[in-house]
Design a protein that fits this description.
- Helix content is 56%, strand content 5%.
- The protein is built from three helices and two strands; from the N terminus they run H-H-E-H-E.
- The protein has a domain of 32 residues.
- The radius of gyration is 28 Å and the shape is elongated.
């Protein structure tokens, strides 16, 4: 019990010292226009990189799905999402992702190919 009391006391002192140290820090200086522009450019680059990573991941998933279906002997035709002309009449909430993001709609539901008409 003595060791527990010492550990609790040390933890309480550490929290108190940290709180006092943070309370004494001055506020951050305001950003200049150059710093704001640099921060915006850095944020935009990070967002663009994240979009590219998501697109690559989606492309890998689609490629894996297609290869698995091919191994099963199922023919799947990848179809790109809705056309941009149809997107202009759609509400803003249902707008498709920009081109090149890797969004692909895979074949008819159910996974079974339809037999050609004779």
């Amino acid at each position: 019990m003595n060791a527990t009391f010492r550990a609790m006391t040390a933890a309480a002192m550490l929290v108190a010292v940290f709180g006092v140290a943070v309370a004494k820090l001055p506020p951050a200086p305001p950003l200049t226009d150059e710093q704001k522009a640099a921060k915006k450019a850095k944020d935009d680059a990070a967002a663009d990189k994240a979009k590219q990573e998501v697109a690559r991941a989606e492309d890998r998933v689609v490629a894996r799905y297609l290869s698995e279906q091919k191994a099963k002997g199922v023919t799947v035709t990848p179809q790109v999402g809705p056309a941009s002309s149809a997107a202009t009449s759609a509400p803003a909430a249902a707008a498709p992702a920009p081109a090149g993001t890797g969004n692909v709609v895979i074949g008819p539901p159910g996974g079974a190919p339809k037999a050609p008409a004779k």
